[in-house]
Design goal:
This protein is α/β, with parallel strands linked by helices. It has a single domain, classed as 4-Layer Sandwich (Metallo-beta-lactamase, Chain A), CATH 3.60.15.10. 23% of the residues lie in helices and 27% in strands. It has six helices and 15 strands. The strands form three sheets. The protein has a seven-stranded mixed beta sheet with strand order 1-2-3-4-5-6-7, covered by helices on one side. A six-stranded mixed beta sheet has the order 8-9-10-11-14-15. A two-stranded antiparallel ribbon has the order 12-13. The longest helix is centred in the C-terminal third of the chain and has 13 residues. It is globular, with a radius of gyration of 16 Å. It starts with a strand and ends with a helix.
Amino acid sequence: MKTIVKDVEEIIKDKTKIPEPWGTKVIINDDNMTYLTWNEQTKEAIFVDPMKDDWDVLIKEANNLNGYRFIAVIDTHTHADHISCAASLAERLQTPLIQHQLSPSQRIHLRVSKDTALPTTSGPLKLLVTPGHTADCITPIWGPFIYGGDMILFNDTGRDDLPGGNPATHWESLQKIKANSKLEMVMLPGHDGQGGQASSWASQLKENAGLSQDKETFIKDAGSYVGPSPKLLKESLFENFK
């Protein structure tokens, strides 16, 4: 599938507007979604969950932000369905690669072991430790954006049947994300099979059933799901563990 680049407001289904001076580009490849977010006033930017297959597009979009300072490249977890280029991109942009403490990659600069907030001129970059989909999931929150990774999808929650998945800790992590999110924020999922969709946190709380389930129901539903293995499972884990 050809990589598509969109402005974030093109994929927000409930028409929530992004406040100035924030902006985000969404790089869509199949059902994978990478985000480039920036603040026009402070000239700061981050990448979240970049894919190796999109390298040329990522560099082009980064170059369009001439004069901006990249404060981080973040992988929300160790991906099992695509090969990450987060380490190479961080090196190219001369900025830290941030991941969970348990992430196996040896190229990480900043490992997150507990909930923290990194100071930026644009405001705190929150990094929540949110295991569930995998043991090494983190959920970044910056400005008006929640980066759901594979923990929260559009009107759904991520699968827990892959290595490291745990429905009980997934539910607990969802409660933490709920406690740290505001209704007007926009939740950006790591995947979407309908061409790329997002919405406000307020809409997700109303429409995403997994966010309102009690723990027992969530564990039952999530624990009973068994999906097909990702096509690039072996290749992705082999490369992303380096």
